[in-house]
């Protein structure tokens, strides 16, 4: 094919869309149903798997009678621990499904029924007769229980479970004012709109997974040792995802089940979880029991900050919620201690859920700060301003940028905090007591190595490939904008392809690290390409021009700095004087998140996080029943999340923040910070309205009255 040489060097006539409101590039395909999700990918000869979950929480399987199931001619196979292909041990029995008769939690995968239709598979699963030898189980967190220990690490990056700095006891005893409070947060579930779903297809020794996945590349590296395959024999494709919330951060039982089933029946197999199965086979957030001790001088400067957290993990895998890690860096204190303990219970493995650690940890810390402000008779915003550290108090590193003070000031002004009467329980509108409260927000800014390939076609259009995933956040759109900006092209000339592990190493859509990580090699490749094109006087050679870049080296050379997103949240609540019902009338967040690529999707991320914070404050609680040994409210009818009527006036804005110490795009994560601090701001507002101090999530009417 011949084409007119295209000068792609200078398109300064095309203004960058960065910093403006851009509709999602995949929005139309999603709302029209053209976008396909993993379970919808057509495949010739596909079979359907159904997962059978254990009905006991601890013990072993003594017998499985599959005669009734197999009597149905539509049923092709029943796969259980006696017949399943062997997996390698990887230290996570939640992934090592069907390898023994042991049952470690209620709902554990104990069999897969494969049939020619999902209905037949489900029917067959219901007919399976399973006998057990049941052992006593425990799903009740007792911080002093026999299985409780102090782990070495918490979830996160080289984050120790225990930190101690300075003379805590001395500083606490010398403090003019101190508080010592206990807080609890219940289990939280993920349950994104699209459940866990996989289609697995074997081609000889090559495995293809269409998997609903936050991390297509990472999944290959986790499944490879489990399956005894080289990672390059596994391809994970995940073009569109209907949410993850952390549950698809790493592969769980479903892709493994589909892989085994496809092997056994010699055909592609699809498996999706039901909504109810999501509550045991997708991950959830552990319950936490926390204690915060604060000691301050009379002027409000913190002398001591102690934050301890007890939580649980499963018998299958050690996952430790990083509950107290933001207490290490948010405020300066002369002495500081954080301590996590964890107990093994007969529960499904908890995992990363919508801002692991910081969401629940900041509920405790930011409520404690409000209690301290009251004890000091100091404005809560002012108390925080007086404790902003010069450097990261935990690592001693300089901040890449620190927008908290500006967020507190701007947020307070926007919200109208200045007119606030600090007296408790004095404002009333009819039957509603009114109050306002605030809290700080923060989340670490992670950037991980990634590989991207960028190609300039002969017609001057650009295609960028990176093995990231857009879980609905708008990441694909932000990457398209940033790529277009590099080339000076309109968005219509740029295509960003995500969700294919063969594009190379890339971190998950998680930890609020996606855009900063994936964009780095794209920008590096784009700059190399534009330099090459400049040397060629803008002429694209026949066949196009392609560069693959890896950000690992540049990332390793990045200056050591402490990188965090910050924010300030302000809430106004109304509390019914009789019932104790809490309504969040107004929620305003101001954030410092580096360069904002897309005002529309960024605001949506902040507001989405804040609404999850409303859910944390008012609705969400998984109830582990001691007898049953599992969550009794395992669907979205009984596990409550905010509905439209609960989300009234929610708005987010941000400060202009330029931070050169981050990544070539200058971006910080925006996905998770919005949830942090929200529940505390709401609880602090309830206290202002009523004088009732809420330390246990969620704030149900029993707690408020
Ligand atoms: Mo998220 S909980 O960082 O996947």
UniProtKB/TrEMBL annotation:
<dbReference type="InterPro" id="IPR036856">
    <property type="entry name" value="Ald_Oxase/Xan_DH_a/b_sf"/>
</dbReference>
<protein>
    <submittedName>
        <fullName>Xanthine dehydrogenase YagR molybdenum-binding subunit</fullName>
    </submittedName>
</protein>
<dbReference type="InterPro" id="IPR037165">
    <property type="entry name" value="AldOxase/xan_DH_Mopterin-bd_sf"/>
</dbReference>
<dbReference type="GO" id="GO:0016491">
    <property type="term" value="F:oxidoreductase activity"/>
</dbReference>
<dbReference type="InterPro" id="IPR000674">
    <property type="entry name" value="Ald_Oxase/Xan_DH_a/b"/>
</dbReference>
<keyword id="KW-0500">Molybdenum</keyword>
<feature type="domain" description="Aldehyde oxidase/xanthine dehydrogenase a/b hammerhead">
    <location>
        <begin position="32"/>
        <end position="136"/>
    </location>
</feature>
<dbReference type="Pfam" id="PF20256">
    <property type="entry name" value="MoCoBD_2"/>
</dbReference>
<dbReference type="GO" id="GO:0005506">
    <property type="term" value="F:iron ion binding"/>
</dbReference>
<dbReference type="InterPro" id="IPR046867">
    <property type="entry name" value="AldOxase/xan_DH_MoCoBD2"/>
</dbReference>
<dbReference type="InterPro" id="IPR016208">
    <property type="entry name" value="Ald_Oxase/xanthine_DH-like"/>
</dbReference>
<dbReference type="InterPro" id="IPR008274">
    <property type="entry name" value="AldOxase/xan_DH_MoCoBD1"/>
</dbReference>
<dbReference type="Pfam" id="PF02738">
    <property type="entry name" value="MoCoBD_1"/>
</dbReference>
<keyword id="KW-0560">Oxidoreductase</keyword>
<dbReference type="Pfam" id="PF01315">
    <property type="entry name" value="Ald_Xan_dh_C"/>
</dbReference>
<feature type="region of interest" description="Disordered">
    <location>
        <begin position="1"/>
        <end position="20"/>
    </location>
</feature>
